[in-house]
Amino acid sequence: KQQVVFTGKVSDVQLYTYYRNASAFVCMSEHEGFCIPLLEAMYFHIPVIGYNSCAVPDTMGKSGVLVYKKDPAKIASLLNEILTDINLRSSIITAQSKNVESISVVVNTHNRADHLKRLLDCLAHQTYENFEVIVVNGPSTDHTDRVLEAYQGAIRVEHCPEINLCMSRNI
C-alpha cells in the first residue's frame, strides 16, 4: 500500500480537497522561504509538524510542533501522539488558529514598480483577507511611489534609506 503520494502541481480545488482530508501536515524542508503551506494547513485546522530550518520557525510562530532533528521514528511517534491524543491535537490547533489571525506580508522593493503593482494586485484579490501588507521601499527612484499611492489606506509603507533590502526584517 502506498503511504506517500507525490502529486506534482495540483489545481486549487484539488489542493482544497487534500487539506480538507488531511490528518496532519509534516514539513521537513530545509529550503523554505516563508513556507505558505504551513499557514494553509493551519488555516484548515490541521496540526503542523515542521523542521527547524530557514523561515519555518518564524512562520509557525508559537504554534505547531517544531522538530530539531530529522529522526523518522521519533517524528512518526510524535505524529501518532498528535493524532491519538485529542487534547494535544486540540491545543495545537488552537495555537495555530491564533497564529493565522495575525499574518503580515512584508514586501521589499527597490526600483521594481511594475513587479510591485502586479504583486499588490494579486494580494488584493486573495480569498483569505485577514492579513496586512507592509511594503518596505528603499530608496526607489522609479515610479514606485505612484504605485504605493494607489494602494494608500490598504497597505502600510515603510521607507528604508539604504538599498539593503534585508534590513526590513526588523521593522
Short note summarizing the structure:
The chain has 171 residues and is of the alpha/beta class.
Structure characterization notes:
This protein has 7 helices and 6 strands, in the order αβαβαβααβαβαβ. It has helices at 12-21, 36-43, 56-60, 72-84, 86-100, 113-124, 144-150; strands at residues 25-27, 48-51, 65-67, 103-109, 131-137, 156-159. The strands form 2 sheets. The protein has a 3-stranded parallel β-sheet. A 3-stranded parallel β-sheet has the order 4-5-6, with helices on one face. Strand 4 (103-109), helix 6 and strand 5 (131-137) form a beta-alpha-beta unit. Helix 6 (113-124) runs parallel beside helix 7. The chain is elongated.
Element layout with pairings:
Blueprint: H1 12-21, E1 25-27, H2 36-43, E2 48-51, H3 56-60, E3 65-67, H4 72-84, H5 86-100, E4 103-109, H6 113-124, E5 131-137, H7 144-150, E6 156-159
Parallel strand pairs: 1-2, 2-3, 4-5, 5-6
Order of helices and strands: HEHEHEHHEHEHE
For the largest beta-sheet, the strand count, sense and barrel status come to: 3 strands, parallel
- Beta fraction: 15-25%
Mean pLDDT: 88
Helix content range? 40-55%
Radius of gyration: 19 Å
**Poorly predicted regions:** none
What is the 3D shape? elongated
Question: Can you list the strand order of the major beta sheet?
Answer: 1-2-3
Assembly state of the chains shown: single chain
Measured between the Cα atoms of the first and last residue, the distance is: 49 Å
Structural class: alpha/beta
Distinct helical segment count = 7
What is the tally of beta strands? 6
